[in-house]
Amino acid sequence: MNISIIVPLFNEEESLPELYEWIVRVMKANGFSFEVIFVNDGSTDHSWEVIEKLKEQSEHVRGIKFRRNYGKSPALYCGFKEAQGDVVITMDADLQDSPDEIPELYRMITQEGYDLVSGWKKKRYDPLSKTIPTKLFNATARKVSGIKNLHDFNCGLKAYRKEVVKNIEVYGEMHRYIPYLAKNAGFTKIGEKVVKHQARKFGTTKFGGLNRFFNGYLDLISLWFLSKFGVKPMHFFGFLGSLMFFIGMLSVIVVGVNKLYSMYNGLPYRLVTDSPYFYLSLTAMIIGTQLFLAGFLGELISRNSAERNNYQIEKKI
Question: pLDDT of 179-190, one tens digit each?
Answer without folding.
Answer: 999 998 899 999
